Amino acid sequence: MNIYKKALSATALALLLGGMASAQASAKTLIYCSEAAPDNFDAATTTSGATYDASARNVSNGLIKIKRGSTELEPGLAERWEISEDSKEYTFFLRKGVKFQTTSYFTPTREFNADDVIFSFDRQGNKENPFYGKGTWPQYGAYSFPTLIKEIQKIDDHTVKFVLNRPEATMIASLSLTFAVIQSKEYADQLVAEGKTDQLSQLPVGTGPYQYVDYQANSAVRFQANPDYWGGKQKIDNLIFAITPDASVRYQKLKAGECHIIAYPNPADIDEMKADTSLEVQRKEGLNIAFMAYNTVVAPFDDVRVRKALNMAINKQAIIDAVFGSTGMVAVNAMPPGVWGYNKDVKDDAYDIEASRKLLEEAGVKGLSMKIWAMPVQRPYMPNARRAAESMQADLAKVGVKAEIVSYDWSEYLKRSLEKDRDGAVMLGWTGGMADPDNFLAALLGCEAVGSSNRANWCNADFEKLIQAAKLTTDQAERTKLYEQAQVIFKEQAPWLTIAHQVMEQPVSKKVKDFRIDPFGGYLFEDVDIEE
User: Fold this and answer.
1) Integer distance in angstroms from the first to the last C-alpha of the chain?
2) What's the rounded Cα separation, in Å, for the pair 78 and 333?
């Protein structure tokens, strides 16, 4: 059963907000104009940033947190932790007195404890768990948790031990990611008893600063401050995500005061925004990459010569100029230069039409027709995928390749792009969840990520050996050497066209106080305030 309410018209949404304001004259309301609707409200089931923002990042907490506006890790639901000498046992000491949110659909009878931690991971790794479903847990798989976790032991109500099959250099950082937020086992048990297991992803319950109120499909999500939040009740009483896919419309709403913060502005509007005295435009280097992933298991894209030829046919600087403007830079490697371990010696594929034609001829490919998948939404790494695809289409025509541009609804796009026999090269991207090479190279290109976040379906034994070796040591110098070698193999094999990295420029109403750009591309509203 679909429990989401029908979409509201713009007029109905305005009436909703107006009614809220009149009913709660003294309450503070912040409106964020988001770029897309969430897939659901369970971040572990998807790779959608819009879903992360509407669930894990504002409604829930993990054992580990990321300090607001930085890449620094800090305690979350775990107050502290200990690591064994062999780095295969992690013992977490849980925060006491933490309450799950009380909502219209769930009233907790106990506080957060070790059972909730164990459930939150067991549902993603145990096929016998009633919430395992079809086993679609893209992040859990991408970060190698199915082979990494041996068991999770309950020591007592406030102590859990993760026992690993091998050392994992990124273990603590991985637990700060959105798939690792903690769910209520008591709520899950209630849903099992009621025969409503699907409701876990539709009506969320967390321990975070805001709690879910309702969702008008494709129109608005409404939250309110969690009165029992362990980090203190928020200064904002009502938080509204007004779903507004068009960047120009988002900007108009910002100027009209209908939004206080907007997602992903058009680069062409930034200068005008900076001149507006009612706005502040924040700027931060982004840990992101835009790419186009070839399906390397489908001919002729299983031939590295074809992939290289297509890469050389595309003028990436022209895409930067037309789509990104001053906010973009050409991407060479599979990770941004702001992440340690970046190999500065790797050379990009040259834009060379004649060399491209020769490689296609050498591969025996003539009259190639292909599809370019263009995202229907803006992301922190791509302002306008359709325009970028049109530029690629024109370039490929010069070497005799006919490219058809296709797109789908965002949720459908993400789902279909995972298909092993997918027809076409998929334009996507990634904003790192942690400032570690593993979060790009393993998460996007590792063998264990095939079927989840590895859209190229690329599994290279030499590359895999290097990234797996890098997981086993905490020596950053040694890890850097391994990752530098892996980047060389990636560039030689060309499973992607690396497109761009984008600097994040964020317009915010000056009424908003202490909003900080998340370097990982999220929109987090904990400890944000707004002038009445």
Assistant:
1) 39
2) 35
pLDDT digits (tens, 9 = 90+) for 361-371: 999 999 999 99
Same domain, 252 and 303: no
DSSP 170-206: THHHHTTSGGGPPPPHHHHHHHHHHT-GGGGGTS---
Say if residue 77 is in the same domain as residue 100.
yes
Q: Look at strands 529-530 and 512-513 and give their pairing.
A: antiparallel
Name the amino acid, one letter, at 441.
L
Q: Is residue 89 part of a domain?
A: yes
Residue 66, SS3 per DSSP: strand
pLDDT single digits (tens) 296-351: 999 999 999 999 999 999 999 999 999 999 899 999 999 999 899 999 999 999 99
CATH number of the domain that residue 177 is part of: 3.90.76.10
- Both tokens of 85, joined, read 């000498």
177 and 91 belong to one structural domain = yes
Residue 269 falls inside a structural domain = yes
**Per DSSP, what are the bridge partners of residue 204?**
none
Asked if 522 and 379 sit in the same domain, the reply is: no
In the structure encoding, which two tokens stand for residue 409, read together?
Answer: 């609804």
The answer to whether position 380 is within a domain reads yes
- 230: tokens are 């362990």
Query: Rounded distance, CA 175 to CA 9, Å?
Result: 39
Does the residue 17 lie in any domain?
A: no
Same domain as 268, residue 383? no
Query: What is residue 301's DSSP assignment?
Result: T
CATH assignment at residue 382: 3.10.105.10
Q: Are residues 315 and 396 in the same domain?
A: yes
Please give the full DSSP string across 202-224, using - where no structure is assigned: TS---SSSEEEEEEETTTEEEEE
- Residues 386, 256: one domain? no
Total tally of structural domains belonging to the chain: 3
Measure the CA–CA gap between 11 and 528, rounded to whole angstroms: 28
Residue 353 · residue 394 · CB < 8 Å? no
Angle subtended by helix axes 304-313 and 476-493, to nearest 10 = 90
Do you find a cis peptide bond into 300, omega within 30 degrees of 0?
Answer: yes
Closest listed residue to residue 184, CA positions, set 164, 212, 161: 212
Name the pLDDT band for 18 (thresholds 50, 70, 90).
low
Angle at 153 between CA 91 and CA 103, to 5 degrees: 90
| Domain boundaries, position 442 | 288-504
Whole-number CA gyration radius for the chain: 23
Which of 377, 251, 384 has the alpha carbon at shortest distance from 323?
Answer: 384
CA distance 167 to 83: 10
CB 112 within 8 A of CB 98: yes
| Residue 114 and residue 122 in contact, taking contact as beta carbons nearer than 8 Å | no
Closest listed residue to residue 380, CA positions, set 510, 178, 519, 269: 519
* pTM for the full predicted model: 0.84
The SS3 assignment for 527 reads: coil
